[in-house]
Amino acid sequence: MARPASAYIAGAYELPMRLYPDKSLAELQAEAMLGALADAGLERSDIDGFFCGPDAPGTGPLSIADYLNLKLRHVDTTNTSGSSYTIHVAHAAQAIAAGKCDVALITLAGRPRSEGRAKGALARTDNPQQPDFQWEHPFGLAVINVYGMTAMRHMHQYGTTSEQLAWVKVAASHHAQHNPHALFRDLVTVEEVANSPLVCDPLHRLDCCVVTDGGGALLVVRPEIARNLKRPLVRLIGSAEAPKGQNGGEFDITVSGAAQSGPAALAEAGVTCADIRYASLYDSFTITVLMQLEDLGFCAKGQGGAFVADGGLISGVGRLAVNTDGGGLCNNHPANRGGMTKVIEAVRQLRGEAHPAVQVPNLDLALVNAIGGQLAVRHASATLVLERE
Amino acid sequence: MANSKIVMGIDDIPMWASIDRHRLELQTCDDCGAIRYPPAPVCPKCLSEKATWTAVSGEGTIISWVVFHRKYFDDHPPPYNSTAVELDEGPIIVTQLQGDEPEGSWIGKRVRLGYAEHAGRTQHFARLIATPAGPG
Predict the structure, then answer these.
(1) In angstroms, rounded to a whole number, what is the distance separating the alpha carbons of residues A223 and B15?
(2) Rg for chain B, CA atoms, rounded
(3) pTM over 0.90
(4) Which H or E run includes B114?
(5) Which domain holds residue B106?
(6) I need a labelling partner for A91 at 20 to 30 A (CA). Which of A273, B14, B21, B108 fits?
(7) Cα A202 off chain centre by
(8) What is the dihedral sign for C-alpha A258, A261, A264, A267?
(9) For the segment A168-209, what is each residue's pLDDT rounded down to a tens digit?
(10) Which pLDDT value is given to residue A135?
(11) 28-57 in B: which are within 8 Å (CB) of A?
């Protein structure tokens, strides 16, 4: 298969705080951009493509692009919920290959913690014109329910246990203890996770990701530009996206879109899961990670529990280093959208700039996978394969 | 906090009217015969716009379930369950299991839909059919 259009992630920046009570969304967008520009060694005037999600206040990209005073010739507001920013990397590379822009800025910023989503007690306000929500209402459902149903079915079908799911959180806590910016830095045990209060049986409080303010930004650039910068070269060599829904009422809730996007991205990159030693996997809930590991092909379907157990995801110890920043489970899930931070930690790993305690030695390949939306009923999986040159 | 709401787009009105009459009707495609859920203006299989609202048998098999332990809505005090049922006609719907609950896993248990008033509207719910478990 032909290699994809070549583009490089030249700048990556994660806002340091997890609570921003006194900053506007616009200011956070600007700080994210400034951080990524400083990281890459580029100027605002270099940016000619802008990618954002609905977290950017205003009409599509228009208000924030104007606020940042960007001079643009390409914009893209693809919204697949949390995986949007992962997909934006691929779309930016495609736009660069098509000659539509040279330096693409991707931003994310949100304040759900300051704005009252932290307790998870606010019901989502759904649009009655959205036909697929019929599946979830009016039976008192919240976002977690489809993840819970997926976990329950996985347990029934494959014998997966709460203790195995807990290992995903335990691994995240092992990594987060080294991240000074992480919301939760304390080590937790399997017993603490499995005995934490049930939110939506079978998922416990510690099976759920954090709610944080914050965000980040990425700069995807043309190869000639990347090679003139002082930063290590991180190239996108494979990408794929896969929206998955209810298929007219016939669907398997234990299979995610990663079963489609993963093999496609790996094939495009010309590598296999056996070549991957670091992966950023969207961890909205512990079950999300387990599903992705199986669907991407790191283990057989149904074997995810055994794969993650006994420290399987802990860097330097386990079978595969996953989410070495502490992930959404311990570190950060800004704006309730995790696709940005997943890319940022993969870039750190490929540059050799992750914390020494969690850095994978001599890393030259990384995989990023994000599941945006709701597992089972409507989501989009996005896979990236990144290479250090 | 407030009560949960029904999803009532234009395409959903006949289904909710049928639930008011205590019989769940879904659209059967006039061209390919597929029974679809949720309600939609075209068949997801063959794109035909012709369909007939048809009552389902109301029997099906539980494919998964959860029990909420947090309060999200005034009309659903925890603990409460939500249960995904694959109807014998094919589509998967979400409802609530009322009455007796199975020991251990609920998956594979046979259920029949019933109807009840809830927060000023009529909703379906599921009850276990007192027979041996069907296939999971």
Answers:
(1) 55
(2) 16
(3) yes
(4) strand B110-118
(5) 10-128
(6) A273
(7) 23
(8) negative
(9) 999 999 999 999 999 999 999 999 999 999 999 999 999 999
(10) 66
(11) 34-40, 43-45
For B133, residues 6+ apart whose C-beta sits below 8 A from its C-beta are B108, B109, B110
Rounded to the nearest angstrom, the minimum Cα separation between B23 and chain A is 17
C-alpha–C-alpha distance, residues B5 and B17, integer Å: 16
The partner residue sitting opposite A152, judged by closest CB among B38, B43, B66, is B66
Single-letter code of the amino acid located at B86: E
CB A113 within 8 A of CB A19: yes
By the CB < 8 Å criterion, does A180 face chain B?
Answer: no
Nearest to A204, CA basis, from A252, A174, A170: A170
Structure tokens at B14: 């006949």
Strands (E), A152-253: 198-201, 203-204, 214-221, 234-244
Closest CA of chain A from B127, distance in Å: 15
The stretch A253-264 carries a mean pLDDT of: 97
**DSSP state for residue A25 in the 8-state scheme:** H
Q: List the pLDDT tens digit at each of the 136 positions of chain B.
A: 688 878 888 889 999 999 999 999 999 999 999 999 989 999 999 999 999 999 999 999 999 999 999 988 899 999 999 999 999 999 999 999 999 999 999 999 999 999 999 999 999 999 999 865 555 5
Instruction: Indicate which CATH number applies to the domain containing B25.
Output: 2.40.50.840
CA-to-CA distance for A95 and B46, rounded, in angstroms? 34
Residue B83 lies in a domain: yes
Distance from CA of B92 to the nearest CA of A (A): 5
Q: What is the pLDDT of residues A338-374, one digit of tens each?
A: 999 999 999 999 999 999 999 999 999 999 999 999 8
Chain B residue numbers with beta carbons less than 8 Å from the beta carbon of A161 are none
Chain A, residues 103-122, CB within 8 A of chain B, namely 120-121
d(CA B33, nearest CA chain A) in Å: 13
- What letter would DSSP give residue B134? -
Identity of residue A371? I
* Structural domains in chain B (count): 1
Which residues of chain B have a CB within 8 Å of the CB of A208? none
Determine, for residues B44 and A137 on separate chains, whether the beta-carbon distance falls below 8 Å. no
| Token pair 């787009």 in the structure block, residue | B9
Q: Which residue of B lies nearest to A143 if distances are taken between CA atoms?
A: B72
Confidence of residue A140 (pLDDT cuts 50, 70, 90): confident
Contact A382, A346 (CB under 8 A): no
Residue B5 within a domain: no
Tell me the domains of chain A and their CATH numbers: 7-115+209-388 (3.40.47.10)
The amino acid at A30? A
Q: Does A131 touch chain B (CB under 8 A)?
A: yes
Tokens representing B104 are 């251990």
